[in-house]
Amino acid sequence: TLRVTNFNNLATLSIPCVRATSIPGLTAELTPNCDERGKMPYNLDVLIHINSCGFRGSENECSLLKSGVIPTTNSPYIYVVGDSYTSASNVQEWNSFIKVAESKLREKIGGAIVFNVGMAAADVNQKVMAIRYFLDKYPTKPTTVVYQWLLNDYDPVLEFSKSHGIKTKIKMFLRENFFTYRFIVYIKYRLVSSASHSPITNADVMKYRKNEFGTEAAFTKLKDKICPFSAYLQSKNILPIFLNPPMQEMISDWNDYDQAAQDIDKRINLIAESCGWEVVWPFDELKKYPINDITVDPRGDHHPNVLGNKIIGEVLGNKLQTVFQKN
């Protein structure tokens, strides 16, 4: 997953319809009124349409946000903010988990609309700022905000759990100006096994994850990020939902996603719940299928394909049904 905070250099290489922005707090935005095809070998046939409001969706959805209409029990509006898993530029819009969840919810509530306000490469800070921007700009307010977390959202979180010594400053400079998140992580993985000069193993990957993500410092800093976000949404009478799909990067089958990785996800879910988030964890449904069957490219791209999006969307849609029927 691309993770850069200066989009002037890298964003347009692989992400359709992205441009630098002057919006305070954001490093990039989707280009309004943009139609562009995917730029990777596996999504060249996918047409990405960005409406005049600057998100992936129809112009009718944009008009609705501008109208100031008040959501009702029979027509709830849901924002989903996330990264490349949410923007889903590898599949047609109707195959994204956003629209699958919308279809599922409409089985019970016909007027429901789920808005895709995700953007590839967004980290935790960018996702929070994006929601604040949309809430401030458009008069129509959502009933619910779904925050799609991914394990590599930890990257900016961990920067603040370490002292900003020379090594951290160098790493931040490199990431912000030249390299993709994937490349930096690859180098980290290589360093894990450099002492023995052996190839990367799944054990190396899990050791890295545990050491980087499974620490109390990391969990504390995560809580410091997502708890205020939940409180902010609740202060505006918006229900916060935390969607936590397992990150399938650098694993070839579910056996690689070992207990340590699962425990980290479970701990993250508990932290989110303690902050007032309703948690959706589609791990149990996804693991019923081989990794290769639910990802874009078994040779190296971990993003959900059509089937992966369908599974995540149905799990989220079922949760939304439960939430709105309860309320």
Structural commentary:
- With 327 residues, the chain is an alpha/beta fold.
- It is 46% helix and 13% strand.
- The chain contains 14 helices and 11 strands.
- It has helices spanning 7-14, 59-67, 84-87, 97-106, 124-137, 154-159, 166-177, 181-192, 202-213, 216-235, 259-274, 283-286, 291-294, 306-326, and strands spanning 18-20, 28-30, 34-37, 47-50, 77-81, 113-116, 144-148, 239-243, 278-280, 295-297, 301-304.
- The protein has a 5-stranded parallel beta sheet, with helices on both faces. A two-stranded antiparallel sheet has the order 1-2. It has a two-stranded antiparallel sheet with strand order 3-4.
- Helix 4 (97-106) packs parallel to helix 14 and helix 10 (216-235) packs parallel to helix 11.
Structure described in brief:
With 327 residues, this protein is of the alpha/beta class.
DSSP helical segment count:
14
Q: Sum up the overall morphology in one term.
A: globular
Helix content: 40-55%
| Alpha-beta classification | alpha/beta
Uncertain spans: 1-12, 157-164, 172-182, 192-200
Q: How many extended strands?
A: 11
Strand content: 5-15%
Distance between the termini: 36 Å
Sequence of strands across the biggest β-sheet: 6-5-7-8-9
Describe the protein's topology.
Elements (H helix, E strand, L loop, with lengths): L6 H8 L3 E3 L7 E3 L3 E4 L9 E4 L8 H9 L9 E5 L2 H4 L9 H10 L6 E4 L7 H14 L6 E5 L5 H6 L6 H12 L3 H12 L9 H12 L2 H20 L3 E5 L15 H16 L3 E3 L2 H4 L4 H4 E3 L3 E4 L1 H21 L1
Parallel strand pairs: 5-6, 5-7, 7-8, 8-9
Antiparallel strand pairs: 1-2, 3-4, 10-11
Helix pairs in contact: 4-14, 10-11
